[in-house]
Amino acid sequence: SSVLLGQAYLTSITINSGSTLMPRATLSETVAGTIIATGTVAVNEGGTLDMLLSASKQSKLQGKWVSVKGILKVTLAEGYTPAAGDSFTLWEATNSFSGTPTLDLPSLPNNLTWDTSELLAKKGVLKVMVGTGIDAIAADATVQCEVYTTNGQKVAQFEAPKNKVMENLQTVSSDHRTLVVRMVSGNRMEVKKVIR
After folding, report:
1. DSSP helix/strand/coil, 166
2. How many whole angstroms separate alpha carbon 119 and alpha carbon 88?
3. Nearest Cα to Cα of residue 90 among 122, 46, 44, 55
């Protein structure tokens, strides 16, 4: 496994399984930076894209083609507390965006939630909004589940009613105590980190 940390202007970059891309302005991991590619930026399944958010700046990717199929991990800068209305452009693709990443988003203060409705687009925007619960997946809805370890390895896939997902997770064979489960129902998606 390897970590590519910093900011750069490149032709293309591909992050494979077990590796992490961290756009940062410095090698200290505490200041957000930008990685620009004249071609493709790709984070493949099992790879991680670690984006830093602060009150004034966020990590960013720019390229002709942007593909994020691995884990999108969002890290909050020290001292930054998200507020309703905060908005972050995580990537901009001039030609196309592809992929449905597994989201690893930090917890937000009470009554706030992440709005990912504009994330899977050429201009990938992540927002903070007041949570209403309206867009949540209903407890009895059938969900397609993909289960990953925290390092991005897919360990299971199953379909179940949302209120039975935890039960099903107990039968997943993995040495890892912490798992990430992505639940999809129609155009709604929820990601939960589960400690068994």
Report:
1. helix
2. 10
3. 122
Render pLDDT for 35-76 as a digit per residue (tens, 0 to 9).
999 999 999 999 999 999 998 889 999 999 999 999 999 999
62 Cβ contact list (under 8 Å, min separation 6):
34, 35, 36, 37, 41, 91, 92, 93
Q: How far apart are CA 16 and CA 155, in angstroms?
A: 17
Token pair 């105590």: residue: 177
Question: Could you read off the pLDDT of 97-132 as tens digits, one per residue?
Answer: 999 899 999 988 877 888 888 999 999 999 998 875
Rounded CA-CA distance 9/194 in Å is 37
Beta bridge partners of 24: 32
CA-to-CA dists, residue 166 to 57, 137, 140, 145, 158, angstroms: 36, 15, 13, 11, 12
Distance CA 178, CA 173 (A): 12
Distance of alpha carbon 188 from its chain centroid, rounded? Answer: 15
pLDDT tens digits for range 75-92: 999 999 999 899 999 999
Four-CA torsion 34, 71, 21, 40, nearest 10 degrees: -70
Q: Strand 178-185 and strand 142-149: pairing?
A: antiparallel
Whose structure tokens read 């693709």?
93
